[in-house]
Design brief:
eight-stranded mixed beta sheet; binds 4-amino-1,4-dioxobutan-2-aminium adenosine-5'-monophosphate; binds magnesium ion
Length: 468
């Protein structure tokens, strides 16, 4: 075969260099045609669009073309010619075709017909080859770039917090343990409890539920930082919005109070959505047509609205009024209750019809590190609530007073001996500061319009599922 430098299909489809030789490589989506001529739709992942390869059957021979079925991988030399068909500029008249790999139609699971998202989850190793997951994972990439660009442009530093940790940041205890102990022969202390001093780290260790505490240490030195990494939660919630392993972005900013924190969160999400519209429109358009006809409108809508800001107390009042007027919820609503996703979505989708930032939650339902309000009942928390998603961001102003922080940690069962280093930030040069965490996959749910969080991460981890 003649050696011609490969062109990605995304570039071939933009090219108007008709009459020139090109090389493309990719996976066959379909091959169809007549006795004289075949049309191969070829995709290489660089774009959702396929390039059409026109094949003169006589030139290659029926037998040679036979293994070129859906899923096969081929290497094609040809002449770029102006397309006769609609919607694309060019197509390739094949001069040489090398078959890299066949895909036996009897066993290749991704045939032409549409597959359910549930079925595709069972073949997560192959689903990136579908239009849907190609689109989702390209968008996922672009969103990661957007996030780094947003913070970089604003002088934030990307700070790497540990994945293995000995502290439970959220104080909720839903952590995956990390151990090298032989589970059949667990070393025990004299009183019978597990002797973690014998374990790898000489103490009990887990996978992190949040990089925030370490992020705060960095903010108290670098001024403004963000983390962006994997996060683990062993909560047994089998919902379309929870993963056991997800990615979280956590900015932390010295001298920011809650208002500035809210503004940062709003600017941040809008920036990401604008970036998606600017850089991923073909993929978004596909998902809009395929799954969610309201997707593009919803993205534009969020961009132009100012997020409604109100307190938890005001929010609960609205929900209680709704109940009084006959609105039914699965979970009870009263001051002090943790809001369920149905409550959050009622506020966003039915009451305000706009993203909402709820602040000043009861201290009992929030983490020990949040700044305590003077009312002694609420803390300076903020949750950003989104249509279709519910909570997309959780954050707060942090308690900067050492005594108040230490007392609250103790009350909530977080041992001071585990977080002495965190308390040191309040001991030495403490300052007001704030931050939040955005669930990357929740953002992706919103931007792609997908309904299940398992479909926006390549290899989802959920209770009873760690395949691939
Ligand atoms: O509200 P969360 O638990 O807040 C924290 O972890 C803080 N330390 C953040 C901070 O202030 N730096 O989690 C933050 C966000 C949620 O709003 C949600 O978007 C996402 O992380 N999230 C999950 N996403 C997928 N699966 C799960 N199990 C998630 N739990 C939280
Ligand atoms: Mg939260």
């Amino acid at each position: 075969m003649e050696t011609i430098a490969r062109t990605k299909i995304v570039d071939v489809l933009k090219s108007e260099a008709f009459g020139t030789k090109v090389n493309v490589k990719g996976w066959v989506r379909t091959r169809r045609g007549s006795k004289q001529v075949n049309f191969i739709a070829l995709n290489d992942g660089s774009t959702i669009n396929n390039v059409q390869i026109v094949v003169d059957i006589e030139k290659f021979g029926e037998d040679y073309l036979k293994p070129i079925t859906t899923g096969a991988c081929i290497n094609v030399n040809g002449i770029l010619v102006e397309s006769q068909g609609q919607g694309q500029k060019g197509e390739i008249q094949a001069t040489e075709i090398e078959i890299y790999g066949t895909a036996d139609p009897a066993t290749y699971p991704l045939q032409k017909k549409g597959h359910s998202l549930e079925f595709l989850r069972e073949i997560a190793h192959l689903r990136p080859r579908t239009n849907t997951f190609g689109a989702v994972f390209r968008i996922r990439h672009h969103m990661a770039i957007a996030i780094h660009q947003f913070f970089h442009d604003r002088g934030f530093f990307y700070f790497h917090t540990p994945i293995i940790t000995a502290s439970d940041c959220e104080g909720a205890g839903q952590m995956f343990q990390v151990t090298t102990m032989d589970l059949n022969q667990i070393p025990r202390t004299e009183d019978g409890s597990v002797d973690f001093s014998e374990d790898f780290f000489g103490k009990q260790a887990s996978l992190t539920v949040s990089g925030q505490l370490e992020g705060e240490l960095a903010a108290m030195a670098l001024g403004a930082i963000y983390t962006f990494g994997p996060t683990f939660r062993a909560e047994n919630s089998n919902t379309p919005r929870h993963l056991s392993e997800f990615w979280m972005i956590e900015p932390e900013v010295a001298f920011n109070e809650i208002e500035e924190n809210m503004q940062l969160a709003e600017d941040f999400i809008k920036y990401c959505i604008q970036w998606a519209l600017d850089n991923c429109m073909e993929d978004i358009q596909f998902l809009n047509n395929m799954f969610d006809k309201g997707l593009i409108d919803r993205l534009h809508f969020v961009l132009k609205e100012n997020f409604i800001r109100l307190t938890y107390t005001e929010g609960v009042k609205i929900l209680e009024e709704a109940v009084a007027n006959g609105r039914k919820f699965e979970f009870p609503i009263f001051w002090g209750a943790d809001l369920a996703s149905e409550h959050e979505r009622y506020l966003v989708e039915e009451h305000f019809k706009c993203p909402v930032i709820l602040t000043d939650y009861p201290k009992e339902i929030k983490s020990f590190y949040m700044k305590q309000n003077d009312d002694d009942k609420t803390v300076r928390a903020m949750d950003v609530l989104f249509p279709k998603i519910g909570e997309i961001i959780g954050g707060s102003q942090r308690e900067e007073d050492l005594d108040k922080l230490a007392r609250r940690a103790q009350e909530m069962g977080v041992p001071a001996k585990d977080i002495w280093w965190y308390l040191d930030t309040r001991r030495f040069g403490t300052a007001p500061h704030s931050g939040f965490g955005l669930g990357f996959e929740r953002l992706l749910l919103f931007v792609t319009g997908m309904a299940n969080i398992r479909d926006v991460i390549p290899f989802p981890r959920t209770p009873n599922n760690a395949d691939f």
